[in-house]
Amino acid sequence: MEDLSGIYQSYADEVKRFLICLTSDVDLAEELTQETFYQAVKSIHRYNGDCKISVWLCQIAKHTYYNYLKKEKNHHNASVENMMQLGLEIPSNKDLPEVAVIKRNTLISIHKEIHRLQEPYREIFLLRTSIQLSFKEIGEIFDKSENWARVTYYRAKLKLSERIDPHEL
User: Fold this and answer.
1) DSSP character for 164?
2) What is the pLDDT of residues 106-121, one digit of tens each?
3) Alpha carbon distance 54, 123 (integer Å)
4) Contacts 24+ apart (CB under 8 A), 81-84
5) Ranges for the RNA polymerase sigma factor 70 region 4 type domain (predicted)?
6) Helical segments of 43-129, H only
7) Percentages of the chain per state (helix, strand, coil), in multiples of 5
8) pTM here?
9) DSSP 49
10) What Å distances lie between residue 96 and 69, 79, 109, 139, CA to CA?
C-alpha cells in the first residue's frame, strides 16, 4: 500500500475528473475531492485490495457527492421556507441569463440519462468518459475481457443516444 500522500498525488486528478463529470462544477469537484480523500483516510483500514484503489476512491467520491446533494436539498428546502415566511420572492430560473439556463438544463438532462442507465452500463460509461480508463482496465475491474468492456461501453452509448433527443435539449 502506498503512503497516503503518494495515493493523493497519484489519484487526486482522476477523482477530481470523475467528480467534475458528476457535478459539472469544477469548484464543487475540488471541494468534494478533498472530502473524498478525508473520508478515504478515515476508512483506509477497510480497503482490502479487491479492486484498484482508483475505483475504491471513485466509489467514495460518488458517496461523498450523494451526501452533499442530500445536505443541499435539506438546506435549500429550509431556505425556501424561510424566504416564504418572510414574504420574500423566491428567485426563479427566468432571472438567469437564457444561455446559462439552457446549458445547465442540457447538462442536467444528460446526467439524468446517464444515471438512469442500468448497471454495468452506467459505471462503464463513467469510468471510460470521466476517468478515461482503458477498456482493458475496465475489463479487469469487472473480471471480464477487454472486448466485453468495449461492447458494453458501445451499448451504453447507444442507449444514451436513443434516450437523448438533441432537439429537446
Assistant:
1) -
2) 677 777 888 788 888 8
3) 13
4) none
5) 109-160
6) 53-85, 98-116, 121-129
7) 75, 0, 25
8) 0.48
9) S
10) 22, 19, 18, 43
Task: Copy the grid coordinates of residue 8.
Answer: 493523493
Cell numbers representing residue 77 in the block: 428546502
Cell of 65: 457527492
Rounded to 5 degrees, φ, ψ at 48 are -105, 0
In single-letter form, the type of residue at position 39 comes to Q
Do you know the residue count of the chain?
169
Cell numbers that stand for 99 in this block = 444561455
Summarised one tens digit per residue, pLDDT across range 124-136 is: 888 888 788 889 9
Q: What is the number of H-type helices and E-type strands within the chain?
A: 7, 0
Contact (CB, 8 A) for 7 and 53: yes
Amino acid making up residue 123: E
User: pLDDT band at residue 21, thresholds of 50, 70 and 90?
Assistant: confident
Angle, helix 53-85 to helix 26-42, in steps of 10 degrees:
120
Provide the H-helix boundaries in 86-97. none
Amino acid identity, residue 89? E
